[in-house]
């Protein structure tokens, strides 16, 4: 364990449960005199975190430097109990027991400001997830996994195609930020995670009881979220990335809602960065609180107001893909997304039902500054998941469409490990069903992760059941028309995407077929398309295929 992680562990595990008072967010003026330097990042970043930056050409800078330990010590000496620090915002979160201590802290020359963020303890309960029914054991497709009832939520994203090519999240690290993981250490859905040492550790930034994140008396929300990614009970439940590695981090105290949880989110995200997470799943969102004076307004949904949103943006700058649920308030007086879902450069995930219709509760966009939100959608009605009470159930909520997406992101990134986080996000958007016509509910639509891989790889991709896939009938180079055929008596629709050499989508349509000699024939007119190099992706119910094509110059 390096020096900084030792310091952080000490700070974040102080005995604070007997303390009374308010929690304060204390902004510091500088990092002058810090013993840490960007030339020696091993003091405060894991090698995996350093490698992520190196692989994506991201410089280690002052935001990576920890808060000056001397400043932390002086705040403690003034009578405050430091809970954790934020290096990205150069701040401390601490319990201040009385006004005298607050005055002493504010008088320190390096303290810029302080603001209360809540009482230490609270007792107001709130509902976490909606349980719909017991999970069913549906038969699966002919695939390497027996998906059972979870087949639809994976197949909707063309995830079976990814799994059958061997992309199952192996080697990827996902940090799950949530409220607790009740019984995740004993639930059969996670047997393979434990057997293969895929749970790398836990961390708690709430400082609440119970201390054990797996306790049956803590929240089971994170258990359900984790199962959407890493669960594996053949014939019942398979997650979207069952071979990924995980850090499980508690940032949310489920019984109360105070703005301190946004600062917990910041600390959790920074920790996830430091241990080298590639992806963060956050099935959390904030807008109103038990203390109404802390409430946000919809005009603040600009990605630049909430500290959690600013931290999500910072994650993107550090090379991480953040998947955050859009929220479940689509039919309420606050129908919009919540914080940090308003952050740019992340994947905010809305929800659809099993038939790909928008879920009525799915929170909508756009952001206050007019950006498309959510970016994408996935199944959020009748999602198959594990419960914190050791059952397999179905549930509703974008809490589940987000981890379903996070797992698919892991599979995609595993398949093209040389790509940068923003290239991954852009390919996912480009592969989505409404990329050229996004709206405030679906965003860019339902992604096709095999198509996204084809976009990133740029070569022919043959998926499972190749004998029934589309065949290219046109010459290459092509001129004013591209034709496809498939041996089938069923005229199934086909989604066609055409990308130029810069990766921009220049054509999209969902085609119907004409029958000829037992084949289904599909064609698109390309007269208006300029000469050049293109990648064409075609998706049907039989699979996905892509081709590198050249449009000939008529001259």
Q: For the largest beta sheet, what order do the strands appear in spatially?
A: 7-10-6-11-12-13-14
Strand content: 15-25%
Named at the architecture level, the CATH assignment of the largest domain is: 3-Layer(aba) Sandwich
Report how far apart the termini are: 66 Å
Query: What does the largest sheet look like?
Result: 7 strands, parallel
Number of helices: 13
CATH topology of the largest domain: Rossmann fold
| Total number of strands | 24
Helix content: 10-25%
How many structural domains? 3
**Assembly context of the chains:** single chain
CATH class of the largest domain: Alpha Beta
Uncertain stretches: 1-18, 119-140, 459-468
Radius of gyration from CA coordinates = 24 Å
Classified in CATH, the superfamily of the largest domain is Peptidase S8/S53 domain
What can be said about this structure in brief?
Helices cover 23% and strands 24% of the residues. With 555 residues, it is an alpha/beta fold. Helix 10 (307-317) links the parallel strand 11 and strand 12.
């Amino acid at each position: 364990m390096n020096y900084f992680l030792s310091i952080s562990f000490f700070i974040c595990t102080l005995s604070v449960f007997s303390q009374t008072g308010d929690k304060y967010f204390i902004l510091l003026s500088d990092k002058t005199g810090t013993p840490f330097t960007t030339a020696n990042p091993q003091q405060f970043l894991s090698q995996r975190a350093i490698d992520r930056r190196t692989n994506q050409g991201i410089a280690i800078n002052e935001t990576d430097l920890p808060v000056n330990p001397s400043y932390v010590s002086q705040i403690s000496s003034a009578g405050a109990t430091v809970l954790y620090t934020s290096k990205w915002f150069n701040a401390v979160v601490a319990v201040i027991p009385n006004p005298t201590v607050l005055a002493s802290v504010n008088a320190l020359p390096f303290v810029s400001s302080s603001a209360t963020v809540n009482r230490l303890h609270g007792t107001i309960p709130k509902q976490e997830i909606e349980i719909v029914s017991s999970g069913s054991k549906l038969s699966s497709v002919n695939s390497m996994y027996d998906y059972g009832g979870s087949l639809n939520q994976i197949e909707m994203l063309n995830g079976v195609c990814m799994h059958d090519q061997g992309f199952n999240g192996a080697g990827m690290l996902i940090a799950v930020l949530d409220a607790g993981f009740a019984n995740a250490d004993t639930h059969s859905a996670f047997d393979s995670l434990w057997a293969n040492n895929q749970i790398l550790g836990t961390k708690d930034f709430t400082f609440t009881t119970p201390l054990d994140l797996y306790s049956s008396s803590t929240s089971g929300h994170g258990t359900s979220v984790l199962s959407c990614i890493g669960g594996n009970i053949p014939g019942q439940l398979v997650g979207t990335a069952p071979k990924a590695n995980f850090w499980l981090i508690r940032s949310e105290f489920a019984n109360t809602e105070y703005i301190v949880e946004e600062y917990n989110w910041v600390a959790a995200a920074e920790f996830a960065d430091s241990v080298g997470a590639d992806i963060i799943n956050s099935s959390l969102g904030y807008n109103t609180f038990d203390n109404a004076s802390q409430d946000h307004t919809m005009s603040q949904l600009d990605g630049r107001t909430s500290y959690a949103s600013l931290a999500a943006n910072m994650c993107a700058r550090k090379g991480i893909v953040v998947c955050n649920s859009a929220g479940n308030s689509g039919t309420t007086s606050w129908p919009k997304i919540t914080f940090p879902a308003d952050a740019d450069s992340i994947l905010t995930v809305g929800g659809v039902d099993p038939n790909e219709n928008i879920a009525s509760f799915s929170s909508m966009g756009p952001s206050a500054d007019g950006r498309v939100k959510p970016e994408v959608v996935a199944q959020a009605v009748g999602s198959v998941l594990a419960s914190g009470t050791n059952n397999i159930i179905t549930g509703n909520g974008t809490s589940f469409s987000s981890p379903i997406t996070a797992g698919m992101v892991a599979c995609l990134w595993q398949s093209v490990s040389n790509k940068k986080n923003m290239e991954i996000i852009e390919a996912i958007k480009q592969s989505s069903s409404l990329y050229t016509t996004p709206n405030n509910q679906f965003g860019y639509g339902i992604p096709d992760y095999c198509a996204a891989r084809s976009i990133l790889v740029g070569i022919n991709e043959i998926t499972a059941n190749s004998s029934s896939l589309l065949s290219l009938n046109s010459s290459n180079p092509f001129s004013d028309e591209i034709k496809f055929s498939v041996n089938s008596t069923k005229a199934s629709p086909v989604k066609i995407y055409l990308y130029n050499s810069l990766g921009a989508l220049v054509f999209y349509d969902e085609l119907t077929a004409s029958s000829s000699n037992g084949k289904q024939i599909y064609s698109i007119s390309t007269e208006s398309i300029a000469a050049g190099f293109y990648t064409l992706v075609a998706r049907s119910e039989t699979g996905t295929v892509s081709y590198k094509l050249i449009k000939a110059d008529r001259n």
